[in-house]
Amino acid sequence: MDSIGTLDTAYAGSGVDLSFGTPSVARSEAFREADRALNSDAMTEQTRVGRLNERAANYRRAAGRARSRGFFDAIGTGLKGAASFLNRG
Prior knowledge:
Layout: H1 2-13, H2 22-88
Helix pairs in contact: 1-2
């Protein structure tokens, strides 16, 4: 909007009618360019969010596996200790 306001002010200051011709084309191009930039930014953000969600899911899976391994390692250590205790008599 600032860009369009600047263009309109420049054209009006030079005595040009803003309703047709070059000012109208410039305004249309500015709106098109802004729309393209906003769409591009939205797509970039969606891609970034998708990657971050995938990374979060991978971390959750890794945490679950680590928790399971820790639980089974603790059981194994306990069983080894119990077996060692029973072997001593």
